[in-house]
Amino acid sequence: MMILILKLILAHILGDFFLQPQKWVKDKEKKKLKSKWLYIHIAIHLALMFLIVWDLSYMVLILLIGVSHFIIDVLKLVFQKKKTKRFYFFADQALHVISIIVLTGLLYLGDFAFTLTFSPSLLLLIICILFLTQPTSIIMKTIFSKWSISKLTKGNESLKDAGKYIGVLERVLVFIFIVVGHWEAVGFLITAKSVFRFGDLTASKERKLTEYILIGTLISFGIAIVISLVYLNLRNYV
User: Fold this and answer.
1) What pLDDT digit, counting tens, does each position of 158-205 carry?
2) 57, 158: one domain
């Protein structure tokens, strides 16, 4: 059952974070149930689940998850306000994962007869690495949405999306270092980033910008470390 849950979670991550452009999200928030992208989004999720699971015997489960995904998304769109967007974002994601686990458990509890190509440990590895890329970037953007970052970084020009890619690379590197057992390399990476950032912080002399960079770095490394520990503890049980 675990490998089925992992495949469904993988489909969720791909559908919610990689195959849902920001313009779709904004259109859904504006038009709610009238937005065509809401229904296209659900259709993409259903297609991904069918493609990744690749077994029509799970059609009822996939359809139920699709319905639950639609209901959760609708509730989020109806009830969230500008001040509560961050709360509903995390609640929405938690409910999606919980619904996958609960529905799979209810329908296939005790069913371990799976003859699938990918091993559970490999799927878990793929999910962890994918989560550290676009999903974590969106999570961090959501966390920082309470502050006007554009005002803090005004006048400090940089390459387009450079911070995003740096964050992705550092999290993936932290994950790799921890998984292979080299925690000292994580310390070296933190030191190296601190050295490069020190010049920016000294030049800016802006306390708010310094706090923003510090919080972002700690959250980024913290998430990477947590996901690494989750992988190390779960890989022996899947």
Assistant:
1) 667 777 888 999 999 999 999 999 999 999 998 887 776 655 555 555
2) no
Say what the alpha-carbon torsion angle 202, 205, 211, 214 is, to the nearest 10 degrees. -10
Report the C-alpha gap between 64 and 103 in whole angstroms: 8
**141 vs 11: CA distance, rounded Å:** 22
Report which of residues 108 and 206 the model is more confident about: 108
Whole-angstrom Cα Rg for the chain: 20
- Please tell me the number of Cα atoms within 13 Å of 23 on its side-chain side: 0
Confirm whether pTM is higher than 0.85: no
CA distance 81 to 84: 5
Position 196: which residue type? Answer: F
Q: How many domains does the chain have?
A: 2
What proportions of the chain, in percent to the nearest 5, are helix, strand and coil? 80, 0, 20
Q: Could you identify the residue written with the tokens 């005002």?
A: 151
Token pair 């994950």 is found at 175
Residue 125 in domain: no
Domain range for 153:
149-234
* CB 171, CB 190: distance < 8 Å: no
User: What separation, in Å, do the N-terminal and C-terminal C-alpha atoms of the chain show?
Assistant: 9
